[in-house]
Design brief:
single chain; alpha+beta; Rossmann fold; 13 helices; 35 strands; disordered N terminus; 6-blade_b-propeller_TolB-like; serine protease; Peptidase S9 prolyl oligopeptidase catalytic domain-containing protein; Peptidase_S9_cat
Length: about 650
């Protein structure tokens, strides 16, 4: 009792001694956490046509989703945002006229297809809440049939049985921070809970007897952190659940069944610096991919257990490889020598057709279907490039900058010819620079076809995308360098980018003006660049960014909290580190103009994160602007809102960096 009382007193003293700016200023998340007057006050304003029209033109340059083909190879279903919201479309043959099969204002995507090719399983969200529902629709089109869609609940498809009747889905409808698995009969419309317990669970794979078609074993995964996983195996016959791998390890694993009973495929960085694919059998790991200085980003084995497709993250470029599932010998794939990225999409349940995506810096992604039986490659989807010559798009150039502790940060740089300073093209002064930090923080900026970068390049900016420590693709030491309080050691990567650019990108002795931009974790990076490292950047735009790590962790959606705590730190145990890493702690240093953009329905970064720092800026009379989209969540999904979000960002940087 005395110890508990003492701990409570210490916590209370910590709170009372904390600066006002870092104490909790709000509670809850979503539109309901704000009063209507606040939403109305910060609603986005219209922009003139000369600002929006160039943005609309670039956003019209797009490619449909990678797509999913029916088992007979005669139809493809894919997502497309051409109506302004992501919806599902159908092609009745390669490069045929597309037919829209879903509509409305809510984003709808393909979750799966029954093996007989008769039905689609669709996921539909409402206004960016990220609490999607699950629906059924005939592949011939028609009305959607509700399976489950509940307010505040994430209903996610997990597996579709070979009988094309039984499906499995997960939902956090019992506890907000935990998910359970249900079995659902598409004919009787009845659901049965088959798993329970604490935590975020999903079905990683199902072992099916290829002779009988019976489901014999289930592989269940449980998240224990932002990257770490535990896996358990359920035997259908014995009804026994057995721990398989990851228990008490806090290790990163991705697991699927191999071709033979008792054999598993495991992707992990456990035994080296980079992720590698292993065969796991009799509790022994045997590598089945070469040892290279690059991460294997992902892998998949087809349902017939014939082929394993895996992707290599080659410094941000995606390289696709294939090996036989039994011998692990290399299998030839179609070659695309000029591609920046080659992606593998879905493989049909019968193992015959696989969707491939190919992207270059000068063209949106193209979608192909590869027929493994005939070895024929057919392009199914064509990108849209109305009124835009994509051959003039800037190509990312890989450069780098040094940090104060001797590390080298890779950056992708987009420049127009007008911003290339050379003897053949001498510039009177440097073009202004925008440094764009990616989200995650485990994300990665990659080269390729980049509409977003091109918008700023067209407007006369140099667009820079760093992969600071904490980013994917450079090994586990790089990825984990910013975990918890260690972030204090590497957060200076944000300032070091500006220091390098100001020193090395001068023209005629003139230092370029530099802006900082980012969304999600990138938005947090932008706020840190403007506060803790005030003076490093001449203007900043934070989109759905975190202003206070403590209030963020206390108010983010419950199912995300445990995953984010493992990356950022615990609000109680690591309280001081979180305070030292929060932009609001340094709000008194902010002196350069700042634009904050937020979705009211954001379940990841609560809208209160934006409002609380805007109030501080208003009190200090710092030039700032807050824009809240009442019908969006973690970023804008509707085309009209995307135009406004980019338009306000571009207009802001033009005003403060070009004038």
């Amino acid at each position: 009792m005395k110890k508990s009382f003492l701990v409570s007193c210490i916590l209370l003293l910590n709170v009372l001694s904390t600066p006002v700016s870092v104490q909790a200023q709000y509670s809850g998340l979503g539109k309901d956490s704000l009063d209507p007057a606040t939403i109305k006050r910060y609603a986005p304003t219209a922009l003139p046509a000369n600002v929006t029209r160039p943005i609309e033109a670039i956003l019209d340059v797009r490619s449909p989703g990678l797509g999913m083909v029916t088992p007979d190879g005669k139809r493809m279903f894919f997502t497309w945002s051409i109506t302004g919201t992501v919806q599902v479309w159908r092609l009745d043959g390669a490069q045929r006229f597309p037919i829209q099969v879903t509509g409305g204002q809510d984003a709808t995507t393909i979750a799966g297809m029954t093996p007989d090719g008769k039905y689609l399983l669709l996921s539909r969200d409402r206004q960016g809440e990220e609490n999607p529902g699950l629906y059924l629709q005939s592949t011939n089109g028609g009305a959607l049939e509700l399976i489950q869609h509940q307010a505040g609940v994430r209903t996610l498809l997990q597996y579709v049985g070979n009988d094309s009747r039984t499906i499995y889905f997960s939902a956090n409808d019992i506890k907000p921070d935990s998910s359970v698995i249900y079995r659902y009969d598409l004919q009787t419309k009845k659901k049965v809970q088959i798993s329970g317990g604490e935590g975020i669970w999903w079905i990683a794979d199902v072992y099916v007897n290829l002779q009988t078609g019976d489901r014999e074993k289930f592989l269940f995964a449980k998240a224990t952190g932002s990257q770490s996983r535990e896996y358990y195996e359920y035997d259908v016959k014995t009804r026994q659940t057995t721990p398989l791998i990851g228990q008490n390890e806090q290790q990163e694993y991705s697991v699927q069944y191999g071709a033979n009973k008792g054999e598993y495929l495991v992707l992990t960085p456990k035994f080296g610096e980079f992720r590698r694919l292993y065969r796991y059998q009799n509790q022994q790991f045997t590598p089945i991919t070469p040892e290279i200085k690059a991460d294997i980003a992902s892998f998949n084995i087809d349902d017939q257990r014939q082929r394993i497709l895996y992707s290599i993250n080659d410094g941000g470029y995606n390289r696709l490889q294939a090996i036989a599932a039994t011998t692990f010998e290399a299998i030839a794939l179609p070659q695309f020598p000029n591609a920046d990225h080659v992606y593998a999409g879905q493989t049909t349940r019968n193992g015959r057709f696989t969707t491939l995506g190919v992207e270059t810096a000068k063209s949106p992604r193209l979608s192909y279907i590869y027929d493994w039986q005939t070895e024929q490659l057919t392009q199914w989807l064509l990108p849209s490039t109305p009124e835009i010559d994509t051959s003039k798009f800037a190509v990312a150039k890989l450069e780098s900058y040094p940090t104060r502790d001797g590390k080298t940060i890779p950056i992708f740089v987009y420049r127009s010819p007008q911003c290339e300073n050379s003897p053949q093209n001498p510039l009177p002064k440097p073009c202004p620079v925008i440094v764009h930090f990616h989200g995650g923080p485990e994300g990665q900026s990659i080269p390729g076809f980049n509409r977003y970068a091109q918008i700023f390049v067209n407007a006369g900016f140099v667009f820079v995308e760093p992969n600071v420590r904490g980013s994917e693709g450079y090994g586990k030491a790089w990825l984990n360098a910013d975990n918890g309080s260690d972030r204090l050691k590497v957060i200076t990567d944000i300032e070091d980018a500006s220091i390098y650019l100001r020193k090395n990108w001068q023209v005629n002795g003139i230092i370029p003006k530099i802006g900082i931009l980012g969304g999600s974790y990138g938005g947090y990076a932008a706020l840190m660049g403007m506060s803790k490292f005030a003076g490093s950047y001449d203007a900043g735009v934070s989109i759905v960014g975190i202003s206070n790590l403590i209030t963020f962790l206390n108010n983010t959606a419950p199912y995300r909290r445990i995953l984010r705590i493992s990356k950022y730190g615990d609000p109680v145990k690591d309280r001081q580190a979180l305070i030292d890493l929060s932009p609001v702690t340094y709000s008194d240093r902010i002196k350069s103009p700042l634009l904050i953009i937020q979705g009211a329905n954001d379940p990841r970064v609560p809208v209160g994160e934006a409002v609380q720092i805007q109030k501080i800026l208003e009190q200090k009379k710092i030039p700032s602007q807050l824009v809240i989209f009442p019908d969006e969540g973690h970023g804008s999904s509707k085309r009209s809102n995307q135009v406004l979000e980019i338009g306000h960002t571009l207009d802001f940087f033009k005003k403060h960096l070009q004038n």
